[in-house]
Amino acid sequence: MDMLESNKNSMKNIWTILKKSIGKQRNKVNFPSTFTINNKQVSEKSEINDSFNNYFSNIGILTSQNIPKAKQTYMSYLNKSTCIYNSIFIEPVDSSYIIEIVRKFKSKLSSGHDEILT
Fold first, then answer.
1. What is the pLDDT, as a whole number, of residue 94?
2. Is 13 exposed, middle or buried (0-12, 13-18, 19+ CB in 10 A)?
């Protein structure tokens, strides 16, 4: 209990102590040391990184090429009699209005990852 008391101002440390006491530790993920790229076993990290980068950089383009072109535009699905153009209006807001709203927030004793009380 002394550990919790001595760390009462650090939620991060308290959670670390609690997780350790119940045996919940971070599980480290062991990644494979080799990958099969173009039917070849690759262990060089830069080549693996480049292959992942190439794959994820191009997957959108490759996938979109397999999607057939639409026969109609999205507008053909909208009901033109109920469609209202320019229908959104946002009132101008100044900083004093925001400050007024924030001051109405209830204070809490909990803190975020930065340990600032919310």
1. 92
2. middle
Q: What is the pTM of this model?
A: 0.39
Cα 39 to chain centroid, rounded: 33
Three-class secondary structure assignment of 1-44: CHHHHHCCCCHHHHHHHHHHHCCCCCCCCCCCCCEEECCEEECC
CA–CA separation, 18 and 22 (whole Å)? 6
Place of tokens 């924030």: 102
Task: Report the residue count for the chain.
Answer: 118
Task: Report the alpha-carbon distance of residue 56 to residue 40 in Å, rounded.
Answer: 19
pLDDT at 11 over 90: no
- How many Å apart are CA 27 and CA 18, to the nearest integer? 16
| Closest by CA position to 50, among listed 62, 38, 61 | 38
What single-letter amino acid sits at 82?
Answer: T
